[in-house]
Amino acid sequence: MLDLPTTPLQQLLRQRLPGHSLPAPFYLSPEVLEADMAHIFGKHWIYVGVEPDVAEAGDVAIFDIGKTSIAVVRDDDGEVRAFHNVCRHRGARLVTDEKTTVGNLVCPYHSWTYNLAGDLIHADHMGPGFKRSCHGLKPVHIRSLEGLLFVCLADEPPVDFDEMARRLGPYIAPHNVRNTKVAFQSDIIEPGNWKLTMENNRECYHCGTNHPELTVPLFAYGFGFSPEEMDEFDRANAERYGCLITKNHAEWEAEGLPSREIDELDTMVTAFRTERLPLDGEGESHTLDTKAACKKLLGDFASAKLGGLSVWTQPNSWHHFLGDHIVTFSVLPLDAERSLLRTKWLVHKDAVEGVDYDLENLTSVWLATNDQDSELVGLCQQGARSPAYEPGPYSPNTEMLVDKFINWYVGRMAEHVGR
């Protein structure tokens, strides 16, 4: 048998130690980032936004994944569609605003005009032999998971999206994402590789010492702990949390709210995890007083005391669904050492700011947490640049989900480039 030459990326993939962080080039190298864009962001279902981003016919929202600009539109029949944001004439970008409302999509360069189904309906001076039907906008695969929007740039997207939707959909559906509006959006440019942002999210090992706001409503115990290393106070709280999980899961599921953990973070191509977790204090929402931030509850809920449904999807999102509002997060690479973290707060579409909710109260916990996490990601990025950096071991008790994220990433890269 011939020994085929290996590429630098294949060599790096072989170097990954199970249960450890990645070799430094995975966080630093422009060549690795280029492979990430081609094989992870170019071939998988990527979370970009929510249906309320395009709530009405004619609404357009632009999402950029690397060099690819995508126009998501709601057409006249109410269907959500996605197209490459590129005119079929000479390639000008069609829509330059992040969000807008249009009757048709009109190129600002030569006024080629497309309807909301992507058909070219007007092009001056092209001669009698020109066929408009051959020059419609190039479509992008798009799926809505109970109002969460995912796109795929591959010619043939992964087919297991349906499996994720079948199992995850019943958890999300009661929160009725489609009947919400975006109350606030925050964009942060984090000073780190996108994988460091995702690794940071996938654990709460760091929460107790870094997130004083977040740990008011959120139990860090829900993300793993080592009981043998805890003092009496922490052991008592961990025991209280365990009792709450058992009691609340039974109650919530009796009310028709699926709650128990599903974990497919490194066992599917379109990988995900979910669980409904108890909240501390009043147990209603991610706020500093743990009470509901919005008076107008979501869906058909009669009470806000429903814990927090946490949802994770690979490679780039996590979400928290409360009884009164929803917080969604997406991460997109900007270059090898910078990432865009986009956070949206959703409330009932009829909720009125200043009457039903106070924006500062709604957003303060996660705005503070995002700033704290951004600084931590930057510290990790600085460390990865050091000649002293070497992959370190993950905690088996608190960093299990980090390990699963890296397992998924390495497995998907190896599937596409070999190992």
Automatic annotation (TrEMBL):
Stretches assigned to the Rieske domain: 47-151
Protein name in the entry: Aromatic ring-hydroxylating dioxygenase subunit alpha
SUPFAM superfamilies referenced in this protein's UniProt entry, alphabetically: Bet v1-like, ISP domain
Cofactor annotation: Fe cation
Pfam families: Rieske (PF00355), Ring_hydroxyl_A (PF00848)
GO MF entry, a single one: iron ion binding
Originating organism: Hansschlegelia quercus
Keywords: 2Fe-2S, Dioxygenase, Iron, Iron-sulfur, Metal-binding, Oxidoreductase
